[in-house]
Amino acid sequence: MVPKICLANPAQGLKQAILILITAQRKVKRMNKAYFKRVFFEEQALDYPVGKAMYDKLKVQGYDIGLLKSHNRVTGIPGKSARESFFQGKNTLVVGVRKTLDFAPCKPSAHFQLPLVTGCQGICEYCYLNTQLGKKPYTRVYVNIDEILAQAANYIQQRQPETTVFEAAATSDPVPVEPFSGALAQAINFFAHQEYAYLKFVTKFPSIDSLLDLDHRGRTRIRYSLNTDRIIHDYEHRTAVLDERIQALSRLLEHGYPGGVIIAPVILEGNWQEEYGHMMDKLAEALSAYRDIHFEVISHRFARKAKSNILDVFPQTTLPMNEDKSRSYKFGQFGYGKLVYNKALLQEIKSFFTDAIGRHFPEAKIDYII
User: Fold this and answer.
1) What is the dihedral sign for C-alpha 259, 264, 268, 274?
2) How many angstroms separate the CA atoms of 244 and 262, rounded?
3) Domain 34-369: CATH class, spelled out
């Protein structure tokens, strides 16, 4: 939308225009900035070159850094209520050494998770990580990247000649912390030389400049998680707006990366078909020239434990979590069940997005609609 400038008073109009530009610049900087109020380092992390470099960089940037014996036991995060604990956790960065090198499965998007980062600085009310990362969900970055990638090589070798796909954002959004660790760049360079493997990750943040000129050789697919303007505004706090995400994805495609779009969660509220149709129109306008785009569509679902946690942290949330006839209980792959939309509504979602994607992107691949 073009802002209205005061033409009756040119001086006032110029001042207003400058203010608008400054506000826009601040907004972009805010979306690319890490929101950390405190940083902790596991002592052992300083024995790794990546850890030492991160420590020095964060010190120069003015962060007050505490030391820990273990990144699994962080006691310096304040918070008396569930809500305060949650937000204080979201403002905390912990740097440690990944001890467990057994990779978890990652259906349906990949064969295995690639654990470079755990946690996310974004605050999405519906996020399933609300039940996975404790009451103080801090972001954890691992410095033993060489060891993690060596383990990935073992999995690749075991499955040859089958192709193995790794997901680097299964329990995180790794992009906001990439300027500190460089983990994604290192992983992209690693997978560029793997004949029998591919890397995937997804993000809601636009700060991907450091990845653009890497020699990825088409073996890393970077996807953007998209939703309607209203869903982003109402539920995806501290993330980039839709236009910024689409622009970032367009830049990646320009640099030869295979791209992807995850539309999630699809929330059936109000004029949902009109709103998602508008989102698809925006996407097509920016990306219709590109062919190698994959789509993943995930309908809104929630576990009862997640619902309880969400209501503790966001007591005024308007997320649709009614356990009525619109929902069915589905047992999940990790040993607990979720409430998903019933078969009729899921079919409505499948029909809508199959048609919309086929119309706007006839050569794209739909990986799944669930």
Assistant:
1) negative
2) 15
3) alpha beta
Structure tokens at 365: 């691949």
Percent of the chain clearing pLDDT 90 (strictly above) = 79
Kindly report the average pLDDT of the chain as a whole number: 89
110-113 vs 105-106, strand pairing mode: antiparallel
Q: What angle do CA 12, 16, 17 make, to 5 degrees?
A: 120
Half-sphere exposure of 9 (CA within 13 A, CB side): 4
- Return the amino acid letter for 309: N
Element (H, E) at 47: none
Tell me the backbone φ, ψ of residue 242, rounded to 5 degrees.
-60, -45
Model confidence at 333, pLDDT cuts 50, 70, 90, reads low
Which segments of the chain are extended strands (E)? 38-42, 65-68, 92-96, 105-106, 110-113, 117-118, 123-124, 139-142, 164-167, 197-203, 220-226, 236-237, 259-266, 293-299, 327-331, 337-341, 365-369
306, 340, 318, 336: which is closest to 86 by C-alpha? Answer: 306
The pLDDT of residue 203: 98
CA nearest to 145, candidates 59, 242, 45, 56: 45
Give the confidence band of 128 by pLDDT, cuts at 50, 70, 90. confident
Q: pTM (2 decimals)?
A: 0.87
Q: Is 285 left (phi over 0), alpha (psi -120 to 50) or beta?
A: alpha
Q: Where are the domains of the chain?
A: 34-369
Write out the DSSP string of 207-249.
Answer: --GGGTTS--TT-EEEEEEE--HHHHHHHEETS--HHHHHHHH
pLDDT at position 254 is 96
Torsion of Cα atoms, 65 then 70 then 76 then 77, to 10°: 100
List Cβ neighbours of 51 (8 Å cut-off, separation of 6 or more). 41, 45, 95, 97, 143
Residue 347 has pLDDT above 50, yes or no: yes
Task: Report the C-alpha gap between 326 and 328 in whole angstroms.
Answer: 7
**CB-count burial class (<10 Å; 0-12, 13-18, 19+) for 109:** buried
Which residue type is seen at 178? E
Residues 140-160 have a mean pLDDT of 97
